[in-house]
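#struct-help
A.M.: can someone run this one for me? Single chain, 226 residues.
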Amino acid sequence: MLKKLKSLFIIEDEKGAEKSQSPQEKTVLQSNAPAANPPQGKAEPISTPIVASEGRVSQKFLNVLLGAMDKNNLEGFDYLEYRQSLQNLSKMAMDEATRYKSAFAAAQTMGATPQKLIDTAGHYLRILKEEENKFGQALANQRKRQIGGKEEQYKKMQQSIKDKRTRILQLQKEIEQHETQMATVKDAVQKATIKVSNTQNDFVTTYNSIVDKIKEDVQKMKQYLA
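D.P.: on it. Structure tokens below:
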């Protein structure tokens, strides 16, 4: 059933790569990664803009989101079956309104009504919203685990360097060692930030690719079937 759901919301390009049926916008995030090589004797702010990669439809998140829909699939003929009918008719030469009405004509024989189709589409939107909330909490935990501790470590090193600069030449070697450590921590923070941002963008793109299509169908069902 999961494979069937994927076919309802995902198309493939000529190279066989999965892509959404709805366009997505590039997401740019502001991270808390430290700047490289702070000048001598001067505290450097930890915030540096990071541009994450553009979101893409992720196989992993497709399995999560569509799996949740599959697990909560309603009994009988509902929105998902109606969408399957729409997709089957998309290969035929007919305008959009005719396609929606033709699919509904078949759905009526199975007890479907416009309101039932819209209501069941709303059911799947609620399921997807629950998954979005779960992802948000997991992402917050991941940020705290992968970034928060390193940022605190960076700030403490900054203060340590500031204190040690007052101890003249004999401590210069120790100061340089800390600066090297700061560069390493900064690199780790940047990599972790980009990784978390990419994960977020993959989820958002995947989530929106499904939600946008369902919302589009709901709007058109209200337009054509009411």
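A.M.: thanks! The two ends are 30 Å apart (CA to CA).
D.P.: also worth noting: The longest helix spans residues 172-225.
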